[in-house]
């Protein structure tokens, strides 16, 4: 803080997962808050707490994991076996042995077979993947696993699943494999959505060295893994061929829940794969009777990201509660709304009941959030990340696992909301878009890469005569402040040039 103030920075963005659970914090935490506030006053740095984790929702979801956005499973087949219903793959799915090269649709030449194992060594940028096209049922939940070993492997092993027709990626979960690691079984799951064929890839794209081994590839349909339980994500169990004959939870079968949902390894984190909960009957049903079961489940993006269902009233209440708790801890300060990389939206029944597009729902939510902040303090400034409201960035059709078009999300931004713009790649179009809508903008530069980048941002502002750019932000996700001075010097040179000094 002292270094930043000495270099001319005027604001400090505060991001803390504990802002989602201030009601759990002890007196010591709030003493630290007071110390930060006092130092910021001394240094004349304005604090900007970041709240409303809409895209990366895990911290708030720790209070209620069932409020995650859900992908639909429709009419999965179960059979009565004794006092339980057990999943029956419909259709049967699987992957061939990795030693059977001809059974795969393709195997990159860089991969060499060692019995039932595939190996690549020193790939020098070559792809090293296998791919199998698999017939699936639409809107089912599937699990893919593979055993992986690495030695100084300079690449990222992946399990990737794509719609065989459109190419849309259905899985976005990273594997947890180190550069050198002993054999581990890696897991992902995916929802087939409206697909009937998927391409399952195992391996790595463009690795530059080291060795990778793959073994024991498997695929199966999932049961009630990470089943969500809330009104907008109902569980339905019916007798096959008799959709009107719905079995009643708590009457015909025991209440269903996944005790591990959003709890592993701690509250707010969703384990990709574990044993599914069972459907346990309270009354006798004919042995072998076939049931069709429908439910909703979350999807884990990359290294753990889970998005909330913003149309659920209970999640809206969590947003209100967070805003009010942070207001008590940081009264009178500005706020950053954390709407960012919102990758799953628009599938469950609470969303469908709105009759709106993803863009309209996103607009409603950001309007709701900003309005609540203004009610708490009408004089404060409200900031928001640019990407989910930028048609040149993420406010587009079928973004990740969003069910439809995010266009129009920007209609929810009042003109007095300041946009923190990080769309460097298409900065000219993005800057003009928000400027023409009357928004003031802050340029988010650096991003743990090049402190000189902010100069190129500012050159574009000047060349295109973009109005309303009121600041820049040194943006680091690695807590790397070693280039703070260099960044400030670039900005100061620009200001001197503009002022003719």
Return the domain count.
2
CATH superfamily of the largest domain: Glycosidases
* Residue share in β-strands: 25-35%
Largest sheet: 7 strands, parallel
Helix content: 10-25%
Number of H- or I-type helical stretches: 9
What gap, in angstroms, lies between the N and C termini? Answer: 29 Å
- The tally of strands reads 24
**Structural class of the helices, strands and pairings?**
alpha/beta
- CATH class bucket of the largest domain: Alpha Beta
Can you lay out the helices and strands and say which pair or pack?
Blueprint: H1 2-6, E1 11-14, H2 27-43, E2 46-51, H3 58-61, E3 71-81, E4 84-87, E5 106-107, E6 112-114, E7 117-121, E8 128-135, E9 141-151, E10 158-163, E11 181-191, E12 197-204, E13 211-221, E14 236-239, E15 242-247, E16 279-280, E17 290-297, H4 313-329, E18 335-337, E19 344-345, H5 349-352, H6 358-376, E20 382-385, E21 401-402, E22 418-421, H7 427-436, E23 441-446, H8 453-464, E24 469-475, H9 484-498
Parallel strand pairs: 1-2, 2-18, 18-20, 19-21, 20-22, 22-23, 23-24
Antiparallel strand pairs: 3-4, 3-17, 4-16, 5-8, 6-7, 7-13, 8-12, 9-11, 9-13, 10-12, 14-15, 14-17
Features:
501 residues, TIM Barrel, Jelly Rolls, 7-stranded parallel β-sheet
Describe the protein's architecture and organization.
- With 501 residues, the protein is α/β, with parallel strands linked by helices.
- The protein has two domains: 2-65 and 303-498, Glycosidases (TIM Barrel, Alpha-Beta Barrel); 71-297, Sandwich (Jelly Rolls), CATH 2.60.120.260.
- It has nine helices and 24 strands.
- Strands 1-2-18-20-22-23-24 form a seven-stranded parallel sheet, with helices on one face. The chain has a six-stranded antiparallel sheet with strand order 15-14-17-3-4-16, with no helix packed on it. Strands 6-7-13-9-11 form a five-stranded antiparallel sheet, with no helix packed on it.
- Helix 7 (427-436) crosses helix 8 and helix 8 runs parallel beside helix 9 (484-498).
